[in-house]
Amino acid sequence: MKLPNGFGSVHKLPGNRRNPWRARKTAGWETDLEKGTCTQKYITIGYYPTQKEALQALADYNANPYDIATDTITFEEVYEKWSEEHFKTIVPSARRTWKSAFSYCKPLYRMRMRDIRVNHLEQTIKDATVGANTKGRMKSLFNLMYKYAMKHEIVDKDYAALCDSIKKPKPEIVRIPFSDEEIQRLWDDIHFPFADMVIIGIYTGFRPQELAILKIEDVDFENLTIQGGLKSEAGRNRIVPIHPSILELVKKNYDQAQAMHSDHLFNDEFGQQGTSLTYDKYRGRFNKVMKRMNMNHKPHDTRHTFITKAKAADMNEYILKLIVGHAVEDITEKTYTHRTIEDLHREIQKIK
């Protein structure tokens, strides 16, 4: 049967194949000037068990053309495209967790994204010889990849959302606030490298990652505030008042950064991989401080200490949420209340 010009073609491939009939379209011509030849280039629509099904697929494509690349793209290729976009927005330590989760998805790598179903996703998670947290991370990875695939019309159904037999476990996080005696020991040994950074974390409530990447331009000595923050809409670029107790420490780090011609507020002048800090670098230096002081704390305990002491000092709840970057649920406070810098300073000075 002769097909119309430009319609495409269907032909049977040799050998014993499950789907021997190929439907294809002309994708252009390739000219070899040296040989004086012109070769036709094709794109494959798909492979089918019968000629009739191949012709129907070709007719469907001509009636409603779609991107062939998205129709044949594999799970591994979707991950590469998604991660290239997503990794630009997250820190290196977070990237490593996603890469680790992906490494346990090998059974899916070569599968076409359009062919993957719920049982493939669930079985991959169940067969992974990892703990519950990593399995939960794999499920989260599927969620994000399918969100990307739906957005770019690679798939038309979110099978990750149907993986209801895999539940991400709630993390058990133990936070231990610094005691008054421990804080005093930090002050007593303030000249030990990065002891001042730990104290500034305790008096500001910044997350360790937020603290590590603060820049000198974020410090406003006129209003005695620091602008910074990551993670959520409520937490990004928030205004944190500088507690009087740490003002000199902030100034010292500010002056040191300027002397080093560094854009960042905190620096390691002896750092082998640059002077600026990341969360991983900060964690290593934090642990050295804990070892020196004979304390047993994790980096996020500084933030927990600030929140604990703020509540004990009866700080205004709404202002506390503004300072630490927690979402405000009270619609009246969120919409109609405007707090001034003076309000922030008055409340933070309740912490003695």
Written description of the protein model:
With 352 residues, the chain is mainly α. The chain has 15 helices and 6 strands. Helix 4 (92-103) packs across helix 6 and helix 8 (195-204) crosses helix 12. The longest helix has 20 residues, at 132-151. The chain starts with 8 loop residues before the first strand and ends with a helix. The relative contact order is 0.08. Residues 331-337 have low confidence and may be disordered.
Q: Concise description?
A:
This protein has helices at 51-63, 68-72, 75-86, 92-103, 118-127, 132-151, 180-188, 195-204, 208-212, 247-259, 279-293, 301-312, 317-324, 331-336, 341-348; strands at residues 9-12, 21-32, 37-48, 219-220, 225-228, 238-241.
Itemize the secondary structure elements and their pairings.
Blueprint: E1 9-12, E2 21-32, E3 37-48, H1 51-63, H2 68-72, H3 75-86, H4 92-103, H5 118-127, H6 132-151, H7 180-188, H8 195-204, H9 208-212, E4 219-220, E5 225-228, E6 238-241, H10 247-259, H11 279-293, H12 301-312, H13 317-324, H14 331-336, H15 341-348
Antiparallel strand pairs: 1-2, 2-3, 4-5, 5-6
Helix pairs in contact: 4-6, 8-12
What are the main properties of this structure?
mainly alpha, DNA polymerase, domain 1, hpI Integrase, Chain A, 3 domains, 3-stranded antiparallel sheet
